[in-house]
Amino acid sequence: MKIAWCITGAGQFLKESFEVFKAIKTEKLETELKVTIFISNAGLEVLRMYGIFDKLNAISNGDYMEEIFIEKEQGSSFPKTGRFSLKKYDAVVVSPATSNTVAKIAYGIADSLVTNVVSLAMKACIPVYIVPTDGTAGKVDSEIPYSIDRDKCRGCDDCEPEDRCEREAIYGSPIPQIDLLRCDGCGLCSELCPYDAISGGVVEIKAREIDIRNVELLREMEGISIIEHQNLKEKILSLDLYHNSMYKIPETHPRYESLMKREKLVEGIEAGITSKHGLIAHGRGEAFDYLIGERTLDSARRATEFAAALLLAAKKPVISVNGNVAALAAKEIVELSELINAPLEVNIFYRSEERVRKIKEHLEKQGARKVLGDKADAKTPGIEHARAMVDREGIYSADVVLAPLEDGDRCEALVDMGKKVITIDLNPLSRTSRHATVSIVDDVERALKNLISAVKAKKQKEGEGKSVSAWEGYNNKGNLREAIKEIIDRLKEKGLI
Ligand code: PTJ
Hints:
Largest sheet: 6 strands, parallel
Strand order of the largest sheet: 3-2-1-4-5-10
Bound molecules: ligand PTJ
Number of helices: 18
Oligomer: single chain
CATH class of the largest domain: Alpha Beta
Helix content: 40-55%
Low-confidence stretches: none
CATH architecture of the largest domain: 3-Layer(aba) Sandwich
Distance between the termini: 45 Å
Number of domains: 3
CATH topology of the largest domain: Rossmann fold
Radius of gyration: 31 Å
Mean pLDDT: 92
C-alpha cells in the first residue's frame, strides 16, 4: 500500500500524526506500506521547531515512493505530483491540515505543494483523508513550541541556554527570545534554565467560524473524508485491510496463476518496464491460454526440444526481450541467457530510451551480465517502426534469435535476413507463429522453464558424450497444425464442440 502523507504548518496534531505513521510503519500490516511525505513551506518550519523533521526518515527512508518532498525544492509546477495522475498512490492523508490549506482546498485552489497533491489526487479518484486543526467548535488545547516566560526569566548575564544552543536560536537581552525559525525543538534550553523559564506548552485556542464552515465544505466534496486525529491510525489500518482484500489473490483461487501474471504486468507498468499496450497483448494471449487449458501441449514440448537443440547449435544466439517478457519472466530469461551464453537484447515495439534503460536495469538486477539494446546502431531491413532498431553486435549479426511475444512483421523480417527465429506465442494462428523457424505455442513463463530444462538435459547428455537431437527436419507448420488439433481435441473431450 502506498500513502502520500502531506504535512502543513500546524503544531496541533503534528506530533500525534508523526507517532501514528511511525507506529504503523513498525506494525505488521497485511501489505507492504510505503509512505511518501510532502511538506509545505510552513510545515517544514514547524517540523523543525518541534524537532520532528530529522526523525521523518524513520517513516520514509528516501527510496522510490518513500521520499520526503519539500515544497521549496519542488519549483512552481510541483513535478512530483504527476505521480497522482499516474495513480501511483492508494491514498492521500493531510495531517495536520491548517485552516489555510483547508480553505484553499474548499475553494479549489491548488497553488502550493499540498493543495496541488490534493487536487491531482481528487482528479485521479485517489481517496483523500484530511485531519483539520480547526474542525470543531469550542475551545481546544493546542501545543506550542518553546518560549521564554518573561516573568520567570531572571535575565542572567551568563545565560547557559543561550550559550549552549547549537542553532543560536536564543538572542537578545536582558530577557532573551527564541527565534523559532532557527529552533529545532531539541529542548536542551528547557533543561538548562535553572529558573524553569523555558518550556513548550499547551494553550487553549478556539476555531474560527469560517474555518469550521470550510471543513464542512470539505465534508461534502466527493473523494475527501474528514478524520478526527484520534481516529487516524484506525483509518490507515482499515485502508490496509481494504487494500489487502482487494489485491491479495488467495492461492486457492482457481485462476491464481493467471491472476498473478496480471499482477506482474501491472507492476511492470508501474515500474515503467511494460507498456500499457502490453496488457492488451496479454489479454489476447490469455484467451488462447484458456483454449489450451493453461498447460503445456505435447506440440509445444516437441517445439521446445527443437528450440533447445537450435540454441545449442547456434554460433551467435541472442535473446530479444520486450516489456511483457521483462515483467513476466525476467528470472527465467536471465537463467537461459547464462545457460546458452547468449546476450539479452532489449528490443521494444513502443520504444522510449527510458523504458529501454529501465528494462536493462531490471534484467541486470536479476543477474544479467550482458544486456544490449541501448546502442540501436543498426536497422532491421523491411520494418518501419521503432522495433527495427537493433544493436549491430546483437540481433543484427545473430544467427539465431529467440523472440518471445513477438509482433508478426519483425519475425518475418528477421527470417528474411537469413536468421533462425524461435518464438513463444500462445496464438498458433499469429503471423509470428506462422513465420518463425520454431514456434512454441505456450505461455512465456511456462515455455521458458521447459526450455531451460531441455537445454540443461541436452548439455548434460553432451557432457556425457552422448549425441543430442538435431533441430534439422523440424516442420514448424506441421507442429502448429498439431497444436490447433490438440486444442480442438480438448474442446471435443469436454463436450464443448
Ligand atoms: O514492450 P513492447 O513495447 O515491445 O510491447 C510488447 C507488446 C507485446 C505489447 C508488443 O510486442 C505487441 O503489441 O505484441 P502483439 O502484436 O500484441 O503480439 C503479442 C503476441 O503475444 C500475441 O500473439 C499474443 O497472443 C502473445 N502473448 C500474449 N501474452 C503472452 C503471449 N504469448 C505467450 N505468453 C504470454 N504470456
